[in-house]
Amino acid sequence: MPDLLLELFSEEIPARMQRKAADDLKKLVTDALVERGLLYEGAKAFATPRRLALHVAGLPVRGRDIREERKGPRVGAPDAAIQGFLKAAGLSSLDQATIVSDPKKGDTYVAIVEKPGQETVAAIAEIVPAVIRSFPWPKSMRWGRASAAGASLRWVRPLHAILCTFGAETEEPEVVPFEVDGIVSGNVTYGHRFHAPGAITVRRFDDYVASLERARVVLDADRRKEIILADARNLAFAQGLELVEDEALLEEVAGLVEWPVVLMGAFEERFLAIPGEAIRATIRANQKCFVLRQSAMGDRQSGEASTADSPLPTAPLSNRFLLTSNLMASDGGAAIIAGNERVVRARLSDAAYFFATDKGSLPDLETLQPSADRLGLDLKKPLDQRMAKLDRLGVVFHAKLGTQGERVRRIAALARDLAPVVGADPELAERAAKLAKADLPTEMVGEFPELQGLMGRNYAELQGEHPSVCAAIEEHYKPLGPSDRVPSDPVAVAVALADKIDTLVGFWAIDEKPTGSKDPYALRRAALGVIRLVVENRVRLALSGTLAAALSANGVATGTGEAAPLTGDLLSFFHDRLKVMLRDQGARHDLVDAVLGEGMQASDDLLLITRRVAALGRFLETEDGKSLLAGYKRAANILRAEEKKDGEGAFSGAADLQLIAAAGLIEEKGLAVALAQATPKAQACVAGEDFEGAMAALAELRPAVDAFFEAVMVNDPDPALRVNRLKLLNQLREATRAVADFGRIAG
User: Fold this and answer.
1) 8, 22, 412, 718 - which has most CB atoms within 10 Å?
2) Which sign, positive or negative, has the C-alpha torsion 204, 206, 209, 213?
3) pLDDT for 496-537, tens place per residue?
């Protein structure tokens, strides 16, 4: 079947836009084809710095013929309705319609509309210009004389040529004829800007890809990434070094070149005195280059092997770096390397100056003493000076939540309170919290904001802080997402929890909560971070009390009752985030609802909730669990129906055992005995946080419940027996509530 080949050749496409632009081109074109009944076998889009391309395989030569019936008004309907029907159906008179008789609705006009399938070439000639004119670039421009009148095409950069061919593999494809803003479609593309800038005539996709390769253009971005990564690894290995891999940088660099050539440069070893993170940030941000490190294998004795239990150590950076050129230079890249080395040297000189400045004392120490006194800082230490400066400057965290200095005092107090809960030293937790934001006013973080935390740790180590304090300064921002590492050092856990909880209660207190898809302060991420910190470090935290204390620190008066609704609302927010996390991990969110059902205990202990959900999930996967759930549902349905007649609470209290004995049904007595034994056992297990034991106790009910429903008529004609048996079912309902609200479990 014929294929479509489309290329939009332009001046430049920024690397950050290329992936989405390729996806948008594919979606817009293929959606339009499908809407016209032109189904295809496969489609793939591509992007380079100068072109967007799309290959759609397996298209028909023309669309399918369409025949449809359109119902009209009844015979004898008003003329306006008749005329509207004729116009909508494309008929000139009622003679072209048929009349269909219906015994109930009477005679009705029906139009038979037949449309021949559109030629695919004609459809493409309509679709592609429309897509080009409405393409969703995040930023675009006009150019040429017509741009002054605002009537010219908008594109990311000037569009130079459009290639569009259609045809079968065994035939000569035809150019799909159309024109966009003076650019006429054709079968010509262009190769590499420097190596092969001439025109290239193209027939079909395979020919197109091969022709571009010969013209020094690698069309597929993923293949360019593979080339860069393989060449970078090989160059590093040849020098006894290792590549510091960076997926985001690799993606960006692959979008900057059409013919990648990896080269190695170097800088003076004296710059290695700068922290490695700063070197990497400098070279990465300014030159889009990869850094290298000493090979960890070189530090090991011959014959030693790395295992999962003994990973290779992180080696220091090398004074070499790798750059990716867009051409094969006649001098082997010497001039390109030299140019990059000059820029890297200048940037590293700046970084060295920033680092040296940050390690020294500030010139205005006498003005910082009041801030140092408020925060308990030591102005003999450079990092303490920076924190005092942050406080003195009154840098605002949020207009309604005060300054960064005020926030740090709140976090320090909360971290100290949380320290015993997570097993941390309160003094160290408070010290770490006071220095956690101290690197924000440093020169290095001012130049590279992504280094906040990392530079704080470096500066803390240089002034001799406790290792746990240093780790907490770096890690208190973590986890930043669902795949980010969770801190495990107790001091870091205390500060990370305090930081996130203060953020959440602060914005809750000023009613700045997430709404719909909007979450400008990343509060969902903060709540998920708290959950992961608690669960993955197995921390038993009474969240309600912690939230209330944090609200009080944010100025919400807890004695007036104002904090209670906020605490409850925020706790519900945590529960919602917990459901999302557990669902992403494969757990059923209805089990979270069951554990958090109204009246259930431990709703503010996140670790306990996850344990109960896990135990409940395992129980419901067993035959005992499935059967007991079915029995519960049956009992609950009967009770719900009968409570409508007798009133809610009509069947509370224990069943009369003498009445059960008098009825003489073994199955009824068996359920009563099973409930008497299993209920206290399950309750005791839950009280002792033995949730597996509680599930095992409930499992003992399964045979009795099954036998009861097989042999006993609940709604007995005898009113006393009926009420007594409904009380027995109510006891079953209450027994399961020791573990979870089974009524909230699906199935």
Assistant:
1) 8
2) negative
3) 999 999 999 999 999 999 988 899 999 999 999 999 999 999
Task: Locate 567 and state its tokens.
Answer: 């605490």
Which stretches of 246-326 are DSSP H helices? 247-254, 276-287
Note whether 13 and 52 are within 8 A (CB): yes
pLDDT of residue 504: 95
User: Is the CB of residue 292 less than 8 Å from the CB of residue 266?
Assistant: no
DSSP 307: -
Q: Is the CB of residue 372 less than 8 Å from the CB of residue 438?
A: no
Q: What is the pLDDT of residue 307?
A: 34
628, amino acid identity: L
Q: What is the C-alpha separation between 126 and 28, in angstroms, rounded?
A: 13
- Walk me through the domains of the chain, giving residue ranges and CATH numbers: 3-61+119-214 (3.30.70), 66-115 (no CATH), 221-298+313-359 (no CATH), 398-431+447-584 (no CATH), 617-744 (1.10.730)
Residues 6 or more apart whose CB falls under 8 angstroms from that of 373 comprise none
List pLDDT tens digits, range 69-109.
788 888 888 888 888 888 888 788 888 888 888 887 788 88
Who's near 648: CB < 8 A, 6+ residues apart? Answer: none
Q: Nearest CA to 593 among 579, 608, 607, 611? A: 579
- End-to-end C-alpha distance for the chain, whole angstroms: 48
Least confident span in 135-149, 304-318, 575-589: 304-318
Cα–Cα distance for residue pair 288/273, rounded to 1 Å: 21
Nearest to 604 by CA among 573, 558, 562: 573
d(CA 377, CA 382): 10
Looking at the chain, the whole-number percentage of residues with pLDDT higher than 90 is: 63
At residue 568 the predicted structure's pLDDT band, cuts being 50, 70 and 90, is: confident
> Do 2 and 15 contact (CB within 8 A), yes or no?
no
Closest to 119 in 3D by CA, of 167, 183, 69, 164: 167
Q: Which SS3 state, helix, strand or coil, does residue 177 take? A: coil
Beta strands in 599-646 (DSSP E): none
Residue 203 has pLDDT above 80, yes or no: yes
**Would you say how long the chain is, in residues?**
747
